[in-house]
Amino acid sequence: MEEYRRIADRVEAAVRDGRLRPGDRLPPQRVFARRHGIANSTAIRVYGELARRGLVVGEVGRGTFVRAAPPSPGPALVEVTGAAPVDLQLNYPVAEGQSELMARALTALARPGVLTGALVRPAAADGTPEARDAAAAVLSGTGWAPDPGSVLFAGSGRRAVAAALSALVPPGGRLGVEELTYPPLKAVAERLGIRLVPLALDAEGVRPGALAAAHRTAPLAAVYLQPTLHNPLATTAGEERRAALAELLRGLDLTAVEDTTWAFLDPAAPAPLAAHALERVVLVDSLSKRLAPGLTVGYLVVPGRLRAAVAEALRSGAWTADGFALAAATRWAGDGTVAAAVAAKRADVTARHALVLRRLAGQAFRTSPHAYFCWWELPAPWRAETFAAAAAARAGVAVTPGGAFATGPGAAPGAIRVGLASPPHAVLDGALARLADLAASGPG
Question: Contact, 308 vs 125, CB < 8 A?
């Protein structure tokens, strides 16, 4: 084994057994090299290896710090669960009575005579006519009703994103993406060999001028956007911004992957970007947030010119839905389960938003009455990684440092994302109160 890896293994062991704690600052690389009797170039490789393993994060002008929660090995399409007692990293809303509603469809499908044939095999990329009709009904909203014939199915929303990107962006190709974006998108792009090009944001999401400038610098193969309830900023683009982006996509001959995973929570949101530029947008969504991540199906609404390519990507990537999950999703859409869960979660998110307004009053945060997360810009002198480490150790709460969402180089954002969906209301209220007290107390 090369020397830099042996030294990185020793540092990792110190992190794992607690000798180096989250938020601790590593010495400058030249000091590290002197202490370990190695060349500066070897120290640089050690720090690079530690960053690659997800154990440390570097901040320009500040140094290298141990991450708040060293990740466990796992597939790129799986989020990592925090270890603190109250987990405000993951965001899995569960409505009261949802399990009983879902059980009815599962009971009907679990009979021995039914568990045969298509139900125990992977589904076709285009599912069945009944599944396509059900999916179109789930995805329909104000000003938007997709053609059932344009729907394809994946095993989850993340697999839908992976299939869309695989079909649109060749290895080594450039994908325009919001400068702050959903972390698994970054992992998917890395697995596919896609280069991310960060696009500047404003209060409505990606600025059209930023997209045009990035494409002029070197052509983009596609762009990934979250126009409604952007994760993590909770922003929503208005009708004029969507129309401008649609016109720009046509002018640049670009295709967008539009992620509408959270859009169901805002019944008054504008129609999706796909409604403005049907032939320029692949819309992806899923049942993960509407129902449950472990029992889900991903949806893709695909322009006709791309249908064969995306279907092939689903098949070759083994990203298609399972037959049982697709059958269950079709029943849940038809028997009112999805609609009931959506209504319950819209009410629930409003109540949780009220807790944020009360507990974080006076803090600099961004959220929406319809968002299950908020973006909290921390008061000085807190750094995101240090605050996240202190939140876990001192407040018993896991939050996500802003650097996890950053796609561009430079200093990590001095902010955290707080997920609001998973704990009971009383637990969330207490966790927010402890985080507010921690912010006021300072890192000392």
Answer: no
Residue 310's closest CA among 176, 125, 121, 127? 125
* CB contact set of 187 (below 8 Å; sequence gap of 6+): 76, 77
Give the pLDDT of residue 72: 45
Give the predicted TM-score (pTM) of the model.
0.81
Segment 364-378, tens digit of pLDDT: 999 999 999 999 999
Six-digit token pair at 429?
């209220």
| Cα–Cα distance for residue pair 111/120, rounded to 1 Å | 13
Q: Which residues pair with 151 in a beta bridge?
A: 301
Please give the helix or strand (H or E) that residue 366 lies within, else none. Answer: strand 364-366
* Cβ atoms of 379 and 364 closer than 8 Å: yes
Rounded Cα distance, 203 and 354, in Å: 22
Q: Which pLDDT value is given to residue 81?
A: 36
End-to-end CA distance of the chain: 40
* CA atoms of 422 and 94, how far apart (whole Å): 7
Q: Are strands 397-398 and 373-377 parallel, antiparallel or unpaired?
A: unpaired
For residue 435, give both structure tokens: 């985080």
Q: Which residues of the chain have pLDDT under 50?
A: 70-84
Say what the pLDDT of residue 17 is: 72
What is the pLDDT, as a whole number, of residue 76? Answer: 38
Q: In Å, how far are 90, 263, 301, 303, 333 from 140, measured between CA atoms?
A: 27, 11, 11, 16, 12
The pLDDT value recorded for residue 74 is: 40
Task: Please compute Rg for the chain using Cα positions.
Answer: 23
| Residues facing residue 397 across a β-bridge | 86
One-character DSSP codes across 127-143? --HHHHHHHHHHH-BTT
Q: What's residue 80's pLDDT?
A: 38
pLDDT of residue 1: 56
- Cβ-defined contacts of 79-86 (< 8 Å, 24+): 79/183, 79/184, 82/392, 82/398, 83/392, 83/398, 84/391, 84/392, 84/396, 84/397, 84/398, 85/396, 85/397, 86/396, 86/397, 86/398, 86/423, 86/427, 86/428, 86/430, 86/431
Task: Kindly tell me the burial class for residue 257, based on how many C-beta atoms sit within 10 Å of its own C-beta (0-12, 13-18, 19 or more).
Answer: buried
Pairing of strands 281-286, 298-301: antiparallel
